[in-house]
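Moderator note: this is an archived Q&A kept for reference. The question asked for a predicted structure of one protein chain; the sequence and the answer are reproduced below.
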Amino acid sequence: MTIASRILAAAIVAGSSLALAGPTLAAGGAEKPPRQTWSFYGPFGTFDKAQLQRGFKVYREVCAACHGLSKLSFRNLSEPGGPGFTEGQVKALAAEYKVKDGPNEQGEMFERPGRPSDRFPSPFPNDEAAKAANNGAVPPDFSVIAKARSYERGFPIYIFDIFTQYQQQGVDYLTALLLGYEPPPPGVKVEDGLHWNRYFPGNKIAMANPLAAVFDDAGKPHDPNFYSDGTPVTKLQVAKDLSAFLMWAAEPKMEERKRTGVKVMLWLVLLAGLLFMLKKRIWSRLDDAPAKAH
């Protein structure tokens, strides 16, 4: 066996041992998030419109006070592939926000009701105001948070992800983060202003548990009718709904991209078949090569 073969064999054995071990730790001692099931998984996956609407409700009532959606416009909510709100609903929703505009004829900036073409305004006028309201930390914008956050799935799992087209590490992580708040282990001190989270790198996170706005300490919802469509209000359901909405916010054209990709792949398969038939037809006209002289 060559040296390269030995190294490859050792890497496979080591990777398999890690994959079969107990709870694997990510960066900073955090546990790896469990894999969730998503309707938008795979090349033919699509968003669940009802789930996106529920996730938007969670965002508005729980997250919007601190986290913006600066790259998303109100009108995206009514576009194909999104939550499926009507244009009238979007217009009414946008009007609830105040958007800074101007200058006017006097050269002054002013505020006006939002329009569907406007982007979601930031909850803070600037970073300094955000720091002052959040113990010196600036809450991240949620526009692409589902793409910006991820974790390492490790060898050999990431190899299979290439073939299965698994790209939901971000929403898996966000879901786990929302569910990962718990008391710190015995003997571990958590500084003032920080909270223990089993899935956050380093385990100490400045953001308080967002789900506390929906559930009490016993895990029961403050409002059992939080969802108007009758969906059971559980921590996992709320976390997944919000994560799915943030996934759509990060890639609102995902369904269109997948449809285009399928069409391109089918065309390439057809083209390959036509080229193969053309090749056979051309070479069939040529005489066999002369036998090699002995």
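Archived answer notes: The chain has nine helices and four strands.
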